[in-house]
Structure formats: C-alpha cells, structure tokens
Amino acid sequence: MLTLKQARQLRTVLLGTLGWLVALIIFFPIFWMILTSFKTEIEAFSSPPQLFFMPTLENYIEINSRSSYLTYAWNSVVVSFGSTFIGMLLAVPAAYSMAFFETKRTKSTLLWMLSTKMLPPVGVLVPIYLLFKDFGLLDTRTGLIIIYTLINLPIMVWMIYTYFKEIPKDILEAARLDGATPIQEIVRVLLPISKGGLASTVLLALILSWNEAFWSLNLTASTAAPLTALVASYSSPEGLFWAKLSAVSTLACAPILIFGWLSQKQLVRGLSFGAVK
Amino acid sequence: MSDLKITNLKKSFDNVDIIKGIDLEINDHEFVVFVGPSGCGKSTLLRLIAGLEEVTSGKIELDDVEITDTAPAKRDLAMVFQTYALYPHMTVRKNMSFALDLAGIDKAEVDAKVSDAAKILELDHLLDRKPKALSGGQRQRVAIGRAIVRHPKIFLFDEPLSNLDAALRVQMRLELARLHQDLNATMIYVTHDQVEAMTLADKVVVLNGGHIEQVGSPLELYHHPVNKFVAGFIGTPKMGFLEGVVVSVNEAGVEITVSGGSQFLVPVDGGTLQAGEVITLGVRPEHITVTEPEESAYQGRLTVSEHLGADTYCYVETDSGEPLTVRAPGDFEGRYGKMVGLSFDLQHSHLFDAQGKALPRLAKA
Amino acid sequence: MSISNLQVDKATGAEGSASSVKSQNRQKSRISLAMVSPSVLVLLVWMIVPLAMTIYFSLIRYNLLYPGDEPFVGLENYYYFLTDEGFAAGAFNTLYLVLSVLAISVIFGVLIAVLVDNDFWGRGIVRVLLISPFFIMPTVTALVWKNLLLHPVSGVFAAVWRFFGAQPVDWFAEYPMGAIIMIVSWQWVPFAVLLLMTAMQSLDQEQKDAARLDGAGPLAIFWHITLPHLMRPIAVVVMIETIFLLSVFAEIFTTTGGGPGYATTNLAFLIYTQALLQFDVGMASAGGLVAVIIANIAAFILIRIIGKNLTDKQ
C-alpha cells in the first residue's frame, strides 16, 4: 500500500496531468490560430491539417502592406482608449461620492446603473441607428466612443466603488486632521492608494471596448470600423483566406490576451459587478 | 496653554442620543482618560473634540475660544487612531511630515521636526520604510510621531493599544507615560481598559450611556467611587457586591443584614435611609480575608483559586448567588468546594443605596 | 499660530466660512451630488431616449424603404412580429442557447475551478491558458471555429474524426445550433472558471481541515463545503451570463447569418434582420421591445432568486 506521502504525491501528479490536459484542450483553438498564421494558404487549408511546416511571415507582411489593417487597428485603439478615458472622468467622481458620502439613495442608484446593462442592445438598435444617422454619427469613431462610454460606465462605477469602499475611513480622517482640503485628500491620499484598482478598471474597460461586437458591426462601415468588423469581413471572402484570417486575428487579439493575462485577478471584480473579489 | 472646556455637549445620530449632555474641564498638561464600557460614547466624545463629527448642541472651547464648529485641521489638535491610519503609500518620513508639508512649512524646519520626533520615538532607522514593512508597535510609534511633529495643543488617542499583543501593550503603556512627562503635553486618551486608565491618567472620566459617571484621579475613583457603576468598573478583579436590607441607622453607621442573615455595621453616613430599605454592600478583594467558617460572620463556598505567584485570587460562591473574589496570600491552599468564612474589612467597604449611589464615609473617630 | 486663525474666524463668522464643520459638511453633500449627477444623467438619457423612441416606432408603420407616410397602427407591429414565422424559432433558439450555455459553463466551470484549486506544477500557466478564450474577440472566435476547427474537410475536428475512422461532421449543416452552442460555450466557460476560481480562494482552508478530521472524503468535502461556498458566485455567474447570452449576436452574424432557414436565429438576430436588412423599423421596434421585456422578466426572476446576495456583500 502507498504511504500517506506517496498517495498525496500521486494525487498531485494525477490532478496536475488532468489540469494540463483540460487547459491545453481549451487553449487549443487559440494555439491553432496562431500556428496557422505562420502557414501559407495552401498549408493552412490542407487536409489533414499540418502540425509541422516551415513557418513564414508572408501573411503578416501582407497585412501590414495593406494600409487598411492599420486603419482598423487605429480605430480600435482610438475608440477603446477614448471611451475608457471619458468613462473614467465620469465614473471616478461618481464612485467617490457614492463610496464616501453614502445616502439612502446610493444603493438604489447603483442597482439602477446595473440594470441599464441588462438592456439588450437590439432593443435600442433601431432608435440608435436612426439617431446616429440623423446626427451624422454613423460610421464615425465619435459615435462608437459615445456608445462604449455608456455601456461600460456601470461596470466602471461599480468596480471603482468597491475599491474606494475598501479604503479605511480613518486614513482619510487622518488626512483631514492633518489639514488636507477635500481636493488634497483626493489627490494626495485617495488616488495614490487606489491606483491599482483604477488601473484594473481601465484595463477592463479597454478589453470590453476592444472586443465589443454588436455596435461595432452595425454602426460602422468603412471609415470607423474597428478590428472586430475587419475580422467579420472574412466571413464571406474570396479564395483561400485561412492563413490571412489567422494572422489578422492573432494581431487583433494579442494585446487583449496579454492584458487579460496580466490582470486576471483584478478583472474578476469588475466582471462580477463587485460581487466576487 | 491648552485648557479645554466642554459645556452641555449633546450628540445624536438619527434620533438616537449618544452623548446626552456632558460638562467637562480639562486643564493644561493633564493626562485625561475617557473610560467606559462599549457604547458609552467615549470615542464619539473624542471625535467631537477632534471635529470629525458634527455637534448636535453644546459648546467646546479651547483656551476660551469656541471651536465647536471649527474644521478639524484648524483646531490645532492631533489624533492617534486605533488603527493608526498610516498612509500606506508614503514612507515613515512622509507620513510624519505630511501635515507640515500641507501647511507649507519650510522644508528645513520640517526635516528638523521630523528627526526630533523620530529620535524621541526611536524611529530614526525606519524613516525610509513604508508602513507595510513595519511591525505593529513600530506602526503605532509612527502614528504617535505624526501627532508629535505638529506640536498640537492637545493629543487625542483613540484606543491606541488595543491592536497590540499583551507584552507590547505593557511596554507601550510605559512609553506613553514617559512621553507625557517628556513632552509635558495635554493628552486625552480613550480606552475601555481600566488598567490603562488607572496607570496612565492624571484624571479619569468614567462614561456610561452618554453620561459622565465620575471624574477624578485614579485613586480617588478607586477609593471613593460615587456609585455602584464606577465601583464595579474600576479595579480588577472586580469589587464584590452583596445585596441587603437596612436594619437601623445611627451615628456609628448603618446596620445592615445580607442574605444568609449575617449582620454588619458599615461606618457610613446613613442620611435619610430607613429601616427596610434595600442597599448593596461593596467590598474589594483585598478587603476580604479567608478564615475558618466558624470564625466569621459570613460564609461561602470556595470554587476556583487562581495562583498568580505573589497573590492568589479565590472565587467564592455565596448563598445569594452573588460571586465574591478574595485576595489571599500567594501560598494559600484552597480546596475546590470547601466552605470558608469571610471576614470583611468594613472600614474600607462601600454602601450603595437603592439607586446605586454611594453613601459617604463617616470621618474616622 | 492657530489661535489667531481661530480668532479671525470668530470675527468673520465661522458659520459662513468653509472652515466650519457644519458648512464643510453641507458643501460636501452639494459637491457629492454634483459628482454623481453627470453619470446618472448620461445613463438616464441613454436609457430613456432610445427606449422611448423604440416604443414610439413600434406603434407606427415605418419602413425605411417606403418613407413618408407613418400612420399610427397601434399594436399591429407586435402582432406581426409575434406571428412572424421567425419568431417561434427565434424564441426557442434563444431559450435553447441560453440554457445550454448556462448549464455547460456552470458545470464545467465548477469542475475545472475545483480541479485548478489544487496545487500542482505549472498551475499558474494552466490558469492563464484556461481563461484565455474569454478575451478573444467574438468575431475571431466565430471564424476560427467555423473554418479552422469545424470545417468538414480541412478542419481539425474533421481530422480527428477521420483519425478514429468516423465520417467527419458538417457541423454547420447538420447541427447548426449545436455548433453555435459550442462556440459560445467555449467563450463563457472560461468566464465561469475565472470567477469561480477566484471565489475558491476565499474558501477557508481551516473548514476543509476540520471536515477531514471529521472523517469527510474528497467527495463529501466537495458536496458539503465547497459547493455551498460557491453558491453565491455561481449565482453571480448565472445572472451575468444570462444578461449577455440573451443578446448573442456576433457569433451568429459571422458564421450562419441565422441559417440555415431560422435554425440559428435567436431573437436578437431576428430583430436585427428586420431592422437593418428588411428596414422594417416598426416591426423591429416592436421586436426590440419584446426583447427588452423578456430581458426584464429574466432579470426580475434572477434578482428575486439570487440578486439579494449581490449588494449584501458591501
């Protein structure tokens, strides 16, 4: 029979193997996509699929030579960062006020904000489309920035609210006793302490905006279309396109994947509206 | 000069009265301790003095200038919080200099003040560390240092020792006493621990349910409590209480009888007491002696004996169920369950009327 | 130093100046209101204006191809929408999709989270690999699955099927909804894993130790300690996933376009086709409102059953 120590070691090895197996299976599509991006189109489409081949950068080169990729990428960048920036300008004061000056209406306001995210986008597709048309916002980055700010605002407010609530009240009282004005309290004490939480919020908002695939598909055509739309255009392509699709996709997803990997723990809070920390 | 005068101070939160009318005077250089059970309002009182809570009614004056409504930063008071409230993102040096920086004081002066305070508190080698790299005791000293550098009129301490382990608590208590001597400053200290109150205070303020029960020096409160609450709160182990009834009142004192039939003559001024009225006898452990059962007027059953080395504290079960603690010599051998006699030193006992008020002692004959 | 300050304040009337506690507090509540208002106002407008317009449009006959006359037709659009041949399929598919993905993501989410809670070599990397799909753009996910993986000739699945001697499946032809469910689950299982994995870490090790001393085996510990602890985060996962799964769009848009027929059309896609492909604003608005009502009902039910926990935490 196995000793207790041996049984434990065996258990760890078995669980570890199982864990790795599950992880590799789940990650496989991404791995395959990255792999395919280094194949030629013929190799990419070959049957059976090839695991070993001579890698080539031709797909990446072709993408970069076609200026349209950069346009799409730039659109994604502008829209994500723009909406996140405006979102933070609105969310930080709101969260500050709700965390430190809680009133009887605070809880219901927060819940109401949550409820605006429950609105299915299709429900307002028509009016938004028509409004955008009338205001000349269709196919503009500005239009997308406005929408993204609105849809991410509730998550940002909730997330920052929970971070602010974790700061012990007496640190701020100590600052007040030390002679800090409300502005000084915020700038010299509150913000430095919560900068980790604020950074995670920014990261989450960027990820959500970058990957957003409803409004970006319906409200843009060519000028303001971000990367989500570019990839979607490969759904009715001409000729062999798998390798190019993989290259475009890898480039489009790489930054967000890395963001996500770096901040996974902190994102949980925002993704669950502060319910899971 | 830092004389604090509080007049009829009241504070309520959402229609609940926390502070119900407090009058208090605190003099320059005094070490005043606010002590009382949880919820008595001592922290609230401190925060009202600091300006962290809004006063509902009443007046607070510092050196004859009213500060009831003044902003906390302008009151020239410094506070040491229970959780220390150090700024986690600043070094020790920055933590201590923050207030002075905000006030725009010249850098050289700030550095001088910070190193002075650091020297007094032995923090010199820690100045560039951040709070998370400090031990509990070190953090507390930084919190104190933060207060010292401002040379405030009054130091406010909100239960500063409650987060420290027992040994550290004793050490810090001594350091605080020493600090008070060195700085010769006025200090207001809030605690629920009456040992801290007894050992640190020049003046103790006992609070209960938003009222002041008694103000006085530690020994005054110990030997002459004005009511049952103060008598039971101050002193550890607790004073023992026996309920009884007045038999008669004369110039020698008040004759009482307690359950079990024992009768005692307590040398206090009976005032308007009538026979048959309910009273309570209070005796401290050091004023009770264990004897053989037949040698004393009162008996009880010995239960647990705690041997502390120099003393032994015996817990005695009485007929009426009221527990008594007796201080016996260190080598006392008490068998669990043994019946013993208890002899009371009535000269040092206390008698409380039905409302709990202490009856004044008769002058010694 | 400070005495003079205090005296000056007394002279000018401490009440009015910003240095008094009372007026500072009053100022604070005014400022705090001003700080929340922009966000609230902005969201209010975002909710009310489009929603009001949707309601208005749903009550008139309005087709972008035939502009001009827009008569009020009452509930006619709703009638047409609900009796449209696509509606039954759309409603059914929506329900089918949401429930399937919920079940798959919760079950696998719990199992994987429990698995990964054990310490083994490379656990950090495993976790990173596990949560990756959630960060991939939906359009990328859809096309990578449709082409590189599920393609009946050159896809990886086809190769695996052939390896085992079976005939490859043409997923999008034979099991279109199944394919969509596979794709959407692949994205959301990591979401569940991420949340549940994090929640597992707040599970007190001491509780498990006490249970082991009481004689509990791993299954008993899972059932009596781990699972109850995860009930709250599971509720959160279900709530949030439901909100988003009701509106799945990009995956369908980029792979099947709703077909074949109405096989993969859910409500969101149905309304989209009516709005932006058929340009029937009236009907699409009616549909949109129906979608909002359904979402509200779902949210109401969920909040009733589990939502209390969300705000209790603070």
TrEMBL record, chain A:
What is its subcellular localisation? Cell membrane
Q: Where is the ABC transmembrane type-1 domain?
A: 73-263
Q: Which UniProt keywords apply?
A: Cell membrane, Membrane, Transmembrane, Transmembrane helix, Transport
Pfam family example for this protein? BPD_transp_1
Q: Any keyword Aminoacyl-tRNA synthetase?
A: no
- Membrane topology qualifier: Multi-pass membrane protein
**Gene Ontology CC terms, in alphabetical order:** plasma membrane
Q: Cross-referenced Gene3D superfamilies, in alphabetical order?
A: MetI-like
Q: What is the first-listed, main subcellular location in coarse terms?
A: membrane
Q: Does the keyword Cell membrane apply?
A: yes
Q: Which InterPro entries match?
A: BP-dep_ABC_trans_perm, MetI-like, MetI-like_sf
Query: What processes does the entry annotate via GO biological process terms?
Result: transmembrane transport
Q: Where are the transmembrane segments?
A: 12-35, 72-98, 110-132, 144-164, 185-208, 241-262
Family membership noted in the UniProt record:
Belongs to the binding-protein-dependent transport system permease family. MalFG subfamily.
The entry's protein name is Carbohydrate ABC transporter permease
> Which organism's genome codes for this protein?
Neptunomonas phycophila
TrEMBL record, chain B:
Know the name of this protein?
Sn-glycerol-3-phosphate ABC transporter ATP-binding protein UgpC
The record's GO CC annotations read: ATP-binding cassette (ABC) transporter complex, substrate-binding subunit-containing; maltose transport complex
Q: Quote the InterPro entries the UniProt record gives.
A: AAA+_ATPase (IPR003593), ABC_transporter-like_ATP-bd (IPR003439), ABC_transporter-like_CS (IPR017871), ABC_transpr_MalK-like (IPR015855), ABC_transpr_MalK/UgpC-like (IPR047641), Mo/tungstate-bd_C_term_dom (IPR008995), NA-bd_OB-fold (IPR012340), P-loop_NTPase (IPR027417)
NCBIfam families for this protein: PRK11650.1
- Transport in keyword set: yes
Which SMART domains does the entry link to?
Answer: AAA
Q: Tell me, what is one Gene Ontology molecular-function annotation carried by this entry?
A: ATP binding
- Mind listing the UniProt keywords for this protein, alphabetically? ATP-binding, Nucleotide-binding, Sugar transport, Transport
Pfam families with a match to the protein in the record: ABC_tran (PF00005), TOBE_2 (PF08402)
Q: Where is the ABC transporter domain?
A: 4-234
Primary gene name = ugpC
